[in-house]
Design goal:
The chain has 640 residues and is an alpha/beta fold. 38% of the residues lie in helices and 14% in strands.
């Protein structure tokens, strides 16, 4: 194993081709204070070289047009983002070297546009990248040395350094999304200091992905000021003296420990909490180790949007709708095309389609394509073909479909077979109502990776179905259940549980349609309760009663307010306790030890606690026809 680990990082070219080793190199670069984009730069050039080599060569003196087209488009893109004077990134490359490479690539790319281009232009473009590549590779030598040192000792056991004489209960938390961050902060601040908490996450910060659509067009003035700054919290604020953060990817899980990173360091636990979240096919959710790089990445994305005449959004669920609206309102001079496989925008919100399309029509720069799928992607030529034969030319594509749970480590050869068996057919984790893996009293799951039945549902859709929504609010409820159950397991008290069938009102959602308007989705019987708590939707409640949703200028401000509450709840005790009390009100949460709560507005009877509320009838499972109308994208509120 040690020989294999050493071979995986023998040089930069090898290290960047294995996901776990690549992440180790990023983390090592951070430790050596080398900009993280240095690694990304090498990865992109290496991928270009491999792609070019995969295209069959032509005879001597001939030109391979597919190869030339690939090299020209990819190298130009790399040069614009990393080597131009306007770049947001900070490479360890001299200005002279960057300028020379950029100039050569631009000049050669122009020659490649000739109807009968000369042979060898592709080689010339690739050669222009060699100088900057070599400089960055040399600069990363200290990081590679750190990585080699770590990989020289496979399965090193990391023991918790506890600050008291009495041994503490060791809790390992995989993933620092909203559920994970709330769990870590709660257990680290246990009044009796019974726990030592180890957070495993490749990043060094928590990020609220619900702010992504509003942040992408304008991340802010700096990493410390603006939208991205307001939507992030360093883990150093979340983890206190009763815990620690280890940067790395989970590789496997056993009954007693987890393996982390390419060196498979061993982290023992008494209790494990797994909340590794979900991922997209785009940069909506990322695992960049450093917040500085995340900011520069977001600024680079914003510049691409700013410099593109047309932006293509694929998928019209919550994320796609928000992305379309925020880009279209920020840049009214640009065309935004949204392509949806089904017949409706926001199909999970029955009355939203007409309201949102009317809003887009008022903007005048949104082109809507329904019942249409993008089936061919040519990022080199920036051409995207649909199943109806339409070809869209777009400078920026936002893929708001295809989210999946981050549970690959359950499939690792070193994962205990009983734990690996917990995955359902879609890759989500099956658990009992206490949010524990079946058959395990000390392994909990929470957040996006949990199977569908422990999430609240949407309102009834046009097809008559209700679909699970993976929202931050539910992740907070999961964390509440997990933390009190960990504590009650120690004290021998009755555990809390989740019952998603107790969801008579559906999940409230705020959907931004730019910075000035948004769509509020909330049951008419529930809306007055939220208004009484200070969440003013700015809408006559009759509209919620009639339609279940309404467009209001208050929604963007509400989203910012809720995001701020979520961020503060991960590190400020008073805000944390307030958020937990909010989670305790979730009707899906069953806590036999909780004091009785008044029924929500519209519920029959009076005075009874949660246990007195009759469960709602279970929603029917979505039909295949219904599934075809629903985009695969996770909700905008989905937790990190």
């Amino acid at each position: 194993a040690e020989a294999a680990a050493a071979a995986a990082c023998k040089d930069i070219a090898t290290a960047i081709r294995t996901a776990s080793v690549l992440m180790g190199l990023r983390i090592a670069a951070k430790k050596c204070r080398i900009p993280e984009e240095s690694v990304s730069f090498l990865v992109e050039i290496d991928q270009l070289r491999q792609a070019a080599e995969a295209i069959a060569p032509t005879s001597a003196g001939a030109v391979s047009m597919p190869r030339l087209r690939l090299v020209k488009a990819s190298a130009t893109n790399i040069a614009e983002r990393f080597l131009s004077e306007e770049t947001q990134y900070k490479l360890p490359v001299s200005k002279e070297s960057a300028a020379a490479a950029y100039k050569t690539i631009q000049r050669t790319a122009t020659l490649a546009d000739d109807p009968d281009p000369l042979p060898g232009l592709d080689h010339g473009i690739l050669e222009a990248l060699r100088g900057p590549f070599d400089e960055v590779e040399a600069a990363l030598a200290p990081a590679l040395a750190v990585l080699k040192e770590k990989n020289s000792s496979v399965n090193h056991v990391v023991r918790s350094k506890q600050n008291s004489d009495a041994p503490k209960h060791r809790v390992v938390v995989l993933g620092g999304g909203f559920a994970g961050a709330m769990t870590v902060f709660n257990l680290c601040n246990d009044p009796e200091e019974r726990f030592h908490v180890t957070l495993i996450d490749p990043k060094n910060y928590w990020e609220d992905p619900t702010q992504q659509p509003m942040t992408l067009p304008d991340p802010g003035e700096s990493v410390t000021q603006g939208r991205l700054a307001n939507a992030t919290v360093p883990f150093s604020k979340i983890v206190n003296k009763n815990g620690k953060h280890i940067a790395g990817l989970a590789m496997s899980i056993s009954k007693t420990h987890v393996e982390v990173g390419s060196e498979r360091m061993v982290i023992p636990f008494d209790t494990l909490v797994v909340n590794t979240g979900s991922a997209y096919n785009s940069n909506i959710k990322v695992v960049n180790p450093t917040l500085d790089y995340r900011y520069r990445q977001m600024k680079a994305e914003a510049n691409i949007i700013k410099n593109s005449e047309t932006i293509l959004v694929i998928g019209a669920g919550l994320v796609g709708t928000e992305m379309t609206s925020n880009v279209a309102t920020k840049y009214p001079e640009k065309k935004v095309i949204i392509c949806q496989a089904g017949p409706y925008i926001l199909p999970r919100v029955p009355e939203a389609h007409d309201k949102v399309t009317a809003f887009w029509e008022s903007l005048g720069n949104v082109e809507v394509h329904l019942n249409e799928r993008v089936i061919e992607f040519d990022d080199m030529l920036q051409e995207y073909k649909t199943d109806k034969g339409n070809i869209f030319n777009a400078g920026k594509v936002i893929r708001a479909t295809g989210y999946k749970p981050n549970t690959d480590f359950f499939k690792d050869a070193n994962t205990d077979p009983a734990i690996a068996a917990a995955l359902d057919e879609k890759g989500f984790v099956k658990c009992d109502p206490n949010l524990r893996l079946h058959g395990f009293s000390n392994i909990y799951v929470s957040g996006d990776i949990v199977e569908d039945k422990y999430f609240g549902k949407t309102g009834v859709t046009r097809s008559g179905e209700r679909f699970p929504e993976r929202l931050a609010a539910v992740a907070g409820s999961h964390s509440y259940v997990v933390t009190i159950n960990i504590k009650r397991t120690i004290t021998g008290e009755t555990l809390a549980s989740m019952d998603a069938s107790r969801d008579p009102f559906g999940q409230p959602v705020e959907i931004s349609l730019g910075l000035e308007k948004g769509l509020a989705v909330v049951h008419g019987d529930l809306a007055p309760l939220y208004v009484g708590m200070g969440f003013d939707f700015g809408v006559d409640n009759e509209e919620f009663v009639k339609y279940g949703c309404a467009i209001s200028q208050n929604v963007p401000g509400l989203k910012d307010y809720i995001s701020d509450l979520c961020a503060k709840a991960t590190y400020i005790p008073e805000a944390h306790e307030g958020m937990r009390q909010f989670g305790a009100m979730d009707p899906k949460l069953l806590d036999p030890l909780a004091p009785p709560m008044p029924p929500p507005p519209g519920a029959d009877g009076a005075g009874g606690g949660e246990a007195d509320q009759a469960p709602a009838d279970p929603a029917p499972e979505p039909t295949e026809e219904a599934k075809a109308d629903v985009p695969e994208a996770a909700p905008a509120e989905a937790e990190e």
